[in-house]
Amino acid sequence: MIKLQIIGNLGKDCVLKEVNGKNVINFNVAHTEKFKDSTGSQRERTTWVECAFWTDRTGIAPYLLKGQLVYVEGSPEADAYLNKENQPAGKLKLRVRDIQLLGGRNDSNSSGINSGSSSNSSSANALSSNRMQPEPSTVEEPADDLPF
Q1: Closest listed residue to residue 64, CA positions, set 18, 121, 113, 126
Q2: φ and ψ at 59, to 5 degrees?
Q3: For the whole prediction, is pTM greater than 0.70?
Q4: CATH topology of domain 4-118
Q5: Across the chain, where does the E strand assignment appear?
């Protein structure tokens, strides 16, 4: 099994369809990487991934809006084709197994909703920016009251 994990922003609002009696949520995720090339110039490279989330849990669809930061994981698939200029091109697709809203477009929408499979990835949960860490206790116990 090959598993691909992506954190990126949605390129447009999702599309919810019914195909052969099953629900599918289609959306595109973009990940932009910034780097310096060999001449030291700042460069950007954006990778687009077409995602298909086959699920009965369609309640997440209203939250999958353009600009929303998401974590998705699933099985990748690559397609090769000739573009309009008859040049070789490729497309990366993902059959989504798990999706989690992280933030982005509207932080009020990013409440940590998880509509993925029943097995949640601990690394995905660690990525949620809305989880608050508990404050460390500042109460010090006196050394005199030890029970032993």
Answers
A1: 113
A2: -65, -20
A3: no
A4: OB fold (Dihydrolipoamide Acetyltransferase, E2P) (2.40.50)
A5: 4-10, 15-19, 22-36, 42-54, 68-82, 88-104
